[in-house]
Amino acid sequence: MTKKEKEKRQLKYNAPKGIHDILPPDIYLWQKIEKISKNLFEKYGYQEIRTPIIEHTDIFIRSIGEETDIVEKEMYTFLDRAGRSLTLRPEGTASVVRSFVEHNLNTLPTPQKFYYVGPMFRYERPQKGRFRQFYQIGVEAFGEKGPLIDAEVIAMLVNFLNLIGCENVNIELNSIGCETCRPLFKKELINFFSNKLSNLCTDCQRRHKTNPLRILDCKVDGCIENRQGAPMISRYLCENCTVHFEELKNLLNNLNIPYTLNPELVRGLDYYTKTTFEATSNQLGAQKAVAAGGRYDKLVEEFGGPPTSAIGFAIGLERIITLTKEKLTIQYPDPLFFIATIGKEAEMKGLILAENLRQKGYYVEIHYGNASLKSQLRKADRINAKVVLIIGDEELKSGKIKWKNLYTKEQGDVDINAVVSIVS
RNA sequence: GUGGGCGUAGUUCAAUGGUUAGAGCACUGGACUGUGGCUCCAGUUGUUGGGGGUUCGAAUCCCCUCGCCCACCCCA
Fold first, then answer.
1. CA-to-C1' span, A27 to B31 (A)
2. What is the pLDDT of residue A248?
3. ipTM
4. Cβ < 7 Å from strand B, A residues 171-230
5. Which of A67, A188, A212, A361 fits A231 for a cystine, CB–CB 3.0-4.6 Å?
6. pLDDT of residue A240
7. Which CATH superfamily is domain A26-181+237-324 in?
8. Within 13 A of A251's CA, how many CA atoms are on the CB side?
9. A10/B61 CA-to-C1' distance in Å
10. CA(A3)–C1'(B41) in Å?
């Protein structure tokens, strides 16, 4: 092998770490799930919104929070040629809120409800259910502050999970308070842990200063032990938040939607207020959340818009796929016709016939180039074609072509202009 | 960022440190001159992830590196 050939071989590229191709036949599963979600969400009045994949870095820092892991170490951030700091979106809500404010969508009748599908990017170490480019289906509803829409949004998520056959998915529910009650709770938490600091992991010692709520979510044994008896947010919720949460639980009960209260459910994004929820599965390994969301009543204001309550959730598509891969049956598009030809003139006739049939709406495959009739039929069989149309010398002379139904083995002759009659 | 496991043909996997690294599937062709699936036959496919070392001899042992997977962390 020459040096040049050697170098050429080494140019075999692969996708960047944690970033994957989605190929057939898997893509049919993706399309099916996207279609199901779209159909369902539209029944609830959600409309598709497409926001850019790249945004100004600031909007993620402002919304997700400066002290979160996502912003601190997981964003794909770069300078454009004019020196602006841009970031590949690590989540979808920030963009939708930015768009909502930028286009004054608050002037439209409330509530405004949107859904989106697309890739998100986080620079993390890949593992089961966690990727650097991953896909989310998300929804966001703006302009309703009452618990009715919280219940409706959760119901919509549950319906979606049922429709795609996700079993054993548990809805975990919590309220993390609002700007009235959370500061008090934070203060109590800091007090509670201040004489236990040496027993906490180093991360939690840091969190004690930066974001004490996260200590409640830590998985280190020592931290789990030491948070026994820690203050619960439920006891510190203000009147407003308490009523909201109680009403939501009551609504869910009346909708017969099962849920588990998880007072330790703390979301990793700082913008959440009041209601937070997560759909988790025990069949996913360590990354068990298939969907998560909550209310974010201050974020629109944070982005310079008018006070606007909002709520939303995002579904992790790869995780959904691993849960439904064995269960959802997908229909491959099988060709109705396969055109086998013998000889140059037949090839041309075959191509023309294929075009005519396709214009009538049929899925037609042809054989490209010369091969024995045997191998052409073998190929038709392999790709699951239903009817083979054979064009050779005999057929060119008579103007009739031979057809064979590979499913029933029936065969016969038909006028080249009446092929459709075989299948009608 | 930290740990653990694994890298052999397109794919699934074999090969005690010892001939020329094999097999199933897949692909192509033939048996069957213009009729698929089943069967049989033949053919194609490899810097054993890469680099270095030990050895008479390395896919196998050692070191480095890259990649994948899993877990921690974090999250969807």
1. 39
2. 98
3. 0.85
4. 203, 214, 217-220
5. A188
6. 95
7. Bira Bifunctional Protein; Domain 2 (3.30.930.10)
8. 16
9. 27
10. 39
Which stretches of chain A drop beneath a pLDDT of 70?
1-12, 218-220, 267-268
List strand B contacts in A 337-356 (CB < 7 A): 342
So what's the pLDDT on residue A328? 82
Nucleic strand B near CB of residue A61 (< 7 Å): no
Domain ranges of chain A: 26-181+237-324, 337-422
Residue A316 · residue A136 · CB < 8 Å = yes
Taking each helix axis as running N to C, give the angle between helix A26-43 and helix A317-324, from 0 to 180 degrees, rounded to the nearest 10: 110
Q: How far apart are CA A351 and CA A337, in angstroms?
A: 12
Distance CA A371, CA A367 (A): 8
DSSP state, residue A231: P
Q: Dump pLDDT digits (tens) for A226-269.
A: 877 888 888 889 999 999 999 999 999 999 999 999 987 876 67
For domain A337-422, give the fold: Rossmann fold (3.40.50)
- Per the DSSP assignment, residues forming a β-bridge with A121 are A133
